[in-house]
Amino acid sequence: MELRQLRYLQVLAEELHFGRAAQRLGIAQPALTQQIQILERDLGAKLFQRTKRSVYLTVAGRLTLEQAVRTLEQAERTATVARQAGRGEQGSVEIGFVGSAAFSGLLSKIVFDYRKISPDVELRLHELDITQQVEEVYSGRIDLGFIRPPVPQWPDGVTSLTLSREPIIIALPKGHLLSRRSAVPIAALAEESFIATQFQEGVGFYAQVAAICRAGNLTPRITQRGRQFAAIGSLVGAGLGVAFVPDSVRNLRFPNVVYRPLADAAGFTDLALVFRKAEQAPAVVMFINKARQAARQK
User: Fold this and answer.
1) Other C-beta atoms within 10 Å of 201: how many?
2) Contact status, residue 88 vs residue 286, Cβ threshold 8 Å
3) CA pair distance 9, 152, nearest whole angstrom
4) What distance in Å separates the CA atoms of residue 40 and residue 38, rounded to the nearest whole number?
């Protein structure tokens, strides 16, 4: 049984006339007759009753027609999904992200813009640390990752695209003596208690802050650590210390926290998209292109 034979069955059932049905199908009448006979033989049932003056469906023909129409509709849906997937309009994309990407505004903008052009693609987001994301992009468990470089070593076939760059600033409890300054020198932080991110040697925001401290001859006295900047900001607001943070942390609006730039250190932190160099999945490629577009507009 072939889909074209089911289509012939459907059209003939609608026309109940071999000549008109053959004309609609764009084939010769004898060819239509032959295909219907082959279908009847393969199914072991007579589908049409023919007389000199009329053609009509048998009981077997009516029941077969119902199933044929469903089969043809499902085949068309299958073809539509395949075409949409080929254009990146169907499928799924697994996305990793660090917590600080969420409040930067860029992650939400890229996802929002992507969903406008590909509303039927399922996006699944997973909060993961930087090394996890790089490993899982490499292994194929996720498709993309939003990370903060640097990464000491990239696996073969994995690359990144810088999306944005922002200053590293200092978060202070409201009323702190240093909050009276318009900018804070590194040397003025020598006696402060610091709230820092989790230790990841040579990775991400920790590595960027370490570079600032080395350049300023500062050995920060770390008394608290937080996994996320949301937790770090809350601890600063509680008066437990100061913290280096990305400038976009201001978007979280913690009570009792003020922010100041560093007076004598030019520290920056990047947000980057990590992905496979040879990525071919249309939905993923479209997301990368949307991220690249957002980076140019930043």
Assistant:
1) 8
2) yes
3) 64
4) 5
Q: Is 164-270 assigned to CATH 3.30.420.10?
A: no
Specify burial of residue 133 (Cβ count, 10 A radius: 0-12, 13-18, 19+): buried
Residue (of 204, 203, 202, 184) closest to 194 by Cα position: 184
CA 254, 108, 290 angle in degrees (round to 5)?
A: 150
The structural architecture, per CATH, of the domain 3-86 is: Orthogonal Bundle (1.10)
Q: Name the nearest CA neighbour of 149 among 133, 137, 138, 136.
A: 133
Same topology between domain 3-86 and domain 92-161+273-297? no
Query: What is the rounded radius of gyration, in angstroms, for the C-alpha atoms of the chain?
Result: 32
Number of CB atoms found within 10 A of residue 90's CB: 18
Walk along the chain (298 residues) in steps of 10 and give the mean pLDDT of each run. 90 91 93 93 92 89 92 81 62 91 89 91 93 95 95 93 95 95 95 90 90 93 92 95 95 93 89 94 92 87
How far from 164 is each of 32, 81, 104, 293, 297, CA to CA, in Å?
63, 35, 9, 12, 10
Query: Domain 92-161+273-297 belongs to what topology?
Result: D-Maltodextrin-Binding Protein; domain 2 (3.40.190)
pTM above 0.85, yes or no: no
Residues sharing a CB contact under 8 Å with residue 263, sequence separation 6 or more, in sequence order: 181, 183, 184, 185, 186
Q: Which run of H or E residues covers position 140?
A: none
Q: Per-domain residue ranges for the chain?
A: 3-86, 92-161+273-297, 164-270
